[in-house]
Amino acid sequence: MTDNGADRVTELLASIQAGDADAHEQLVSLVYPELRRIAARYLRAERPDHTLQPTALAHEAYARLFSNQLVDWKSRAYFFAAVATEMRRILVDHARARNAGKRAGRHVHVPLSQAEESVDTPTVDLLALDEALRRFGEIDPRAGRVVELRYFTGLDDRETAEALGVSVATVKRDWLFARSWLFRELTRKD
């Protein structure tokens, strides 16, 4: 998104807070491609037979965000940080519900041809990642937010620094630390 587009998102968010009903439509048309890109990025790490599609995930996250009228939208970066957090919550809730269904004795039948295709596709255990991020966030909350913004939302160092109110150098240090810590946690064999 260009700087003009980023500025326009910030303006529209302020208009929404001021009660401008038309600003919602303008915001959706401006940010929708980016919302779908973020949703697709999240879903690429999911299992191949995931029932959510990028469009549905983007719509659900947007609807949840704007159901809470008390949010103080500071900027485009802050908005996309909130989108990433909401998408992660939706996917974690979805994964928990799916796992609860498995424990209840429901099984998903996958044709052998699809099972063979999915073996080569690396997936991330979203519940394990969410738990690791939760633990990491207790150790270093800011660095945990850096992970969400950089990895899930796709913000660059400058945008992440803006969203968090820190320097680019701090974001780079946090990102390096977070990646090392998460890699160790997610590959650790207990």
Descriptive terms for the model:
2 domains; Arc Repressor Mutant, subunit A; mainly alpha; 190 residues
Give an overview in words:
The chain has nine helices and no strands. The chain has helices at 3-17, 21-44, 54-67, 76-103, 112-119, 126-139, 141-153, 157-164, 168-187. Helix 1 packs across helix 2 (21-44). The longest helix is centred in the middle third of the chain and has 28 residues, at 76-103. The radius of gyration is 18 Å and the shape is globular.
Task: Break the fold down into its secondary structure elements and pairings.
Layout: H1 3-17, H2 21-44, H3 54-67, H4 76-103, H5 112-119, H6 126-139, H7 141-153, H8 157-164, H9 168-187
Helix pairs in contact: 1-2, 2-3, 2-4, 3-4, 4-7, 4-8, 6-7, 6-9, 7-8, 7-9, 8-9
Q: Any idea of the CATH topology of the largest domain?
A: Rna Polymerase Sigma Factor, Chain: A
Total of domains: 2
In the predicted model, the low-confidence regions spanning at least 5 consecutive residues are 109-122
CATH architectural type of the largest domain: Orthogonal Bundle
Radius of gyration from CA coordinates: 18 Å
What is the element string, with H for helices and E for strands?
HHHHHHHHH
Instruction: Calculate the mean pLDDT score and round it.
Output: 80
Give the fraction of residues assigned to helices: over 70%
Please tally the β strands and state the result.
0
Q: Structural class of the helix and strand makeup? A: mainly alpha
Shape: globular
What is the terminal-to-terminal distance? 43 Å
Total helix count? 9
CATH class of the largest domain: Mainly Alpha
